[in-house]
Amino acid sequence: xxxxxxxxxxxxxxxxxxxxxxxxxxxxxxxxxxxxxxxxxxxxxxxxxxxxxxxxxxxxxxxxxxxxxxxxxxxxxxxxxxxxxxxxxxxxxxxxxxxxxxxxxxxxxxxxxxxxxxxxxxxxxxxxxxxxxxxxxxxxxxxxxxxxxxxxxxxxxxxxxxxxxxxxxxxxxxxxxxxxxxxxxxxxxxxxxxxxxxxx
Length: 200
Fold this sequence. Notes:
Layout: H1 3-17, H2 21-32, H3 36-43, H4 47-54, H5 64-82, H6 90-99, H7 132-147, H8 150-160, H9 165-176, H10 179-189
Helix pairs in contact: 3-4, 5-6, 7-9, 7-10, 8-9, 9-10
């Protein structure tokens, strides 16, 4: 592949993911203490395919399930660094990501169809160290991100803002914002599982 195509693919990756996938995937391997093959297994693709996107021979992962898993893994990495997800919960969350399926999405993990719920019936909380409000936010974010990418969520919030600013705020904060901000937002609204009837 010529250098121009590689550079173009890297620039597309920056637009879609914020950085080239070579940097992001190596960072995930380091943070989660997995090999490149181990990361490929979590994403549900072959090591060869992961190598192609990391070297920018491909701009993105074509499999929509794998693309959505990558987005979820990147979100998890952000939350671990922010301290909103305990390191003791990471293994279980990675297992959930690995098992997840997101039908009705395109190869960026954004919604292509108006589908039924994408995830299996909720399992117990991500881990004993995750408080109910954080777990509520993570599950809500997981649902939103399974149906739309960040750009779509923000676009929907813009449409809702004039007539439904409360809904717009929920989409923006819980769908694309920092987890700690979303948890505080949910606590202010009094809708988290820690403030409800505890059913779940």
